[in-house]
């Protein structure tokens, strides 16, 4: 995005939706609207699997964190908290989209699970996965 800075909430909201639309949407729909409009910065598809639609939804993955960053766990686990999170996160995404990836929730969950493993174990798992022939793949070699 470069030189444009979305430092005020009003400027951000004018980018994401017009004020008349915001008043008509409930909080859950406002979250969907914010995510949909921000997704356009990322080609509206999952960075990893390239899907454009999933029943489980999409999210924005932090590639790296900065001091005092916006983290989902800092917000209440309800619709108001989710709206507040995505509203504040939107400012960061618009300021520096390279810090984020747009991922479908299944890919995001899979990716986050990889952090459970140290480098040595992760490399061993990847190596073994490449060597393993699944039953569904077996027919390719018959």
Please describe what this structure looks like.
The chain has 142 residues and is mainly α. It has a domain at 9-105. Helices cover 49% and strands 7% of the residues. The protein is built from seven helices and two strands. It has a two-stranded antiparallel sheet with strand order 1-2. Helix 3 (27-39) packs parallel to helix 4. The termini are far apart. Mean pLDDT is 84; it is low at 1-6.
Question: Which key features would you list for this structure?
Answer:
142 residues; mainly alpha; two-stranded antiparallel sheet; 7 helices; 2 strands; globular; disordered N terminus
Secondary-structure blueprint of this entry?
Blueprint: H1 9-16, H2 19-24, H3 27-39, E1 58-62, H4 79-95, E2 100-104, H5 105-113, H6 119-131, H7 135-138
Antiparallel strand pairs: 1-2
Helix pairs in contact: 3-4
Quick structural gist:
The protein is 49% helix and 7% strand. It is mainly alpha-helical.
Helix content, binned percent: 40-55%
Which geometry do the CA atoms define? Answer: globular
Parts with pLDDT < 50 across at least 5 consecutive residues = 1-6
Strand order of the largest sheet: 1-2
Write down the Rg.
19 Å
Give the averaged pLDDT, no decimals.
84
Helices and strands, in order, run as HHHEHEHHH
List how many beta strands DSSP finds. 2
Beta-sheet strand percentage? Answer: 5-15%
**Main β sheet profile:** 2 strands, antiparallel
How far apart are the termini? 51 Å
**Structure classification:** mainly alpha
Annotation field: number of helices: 7
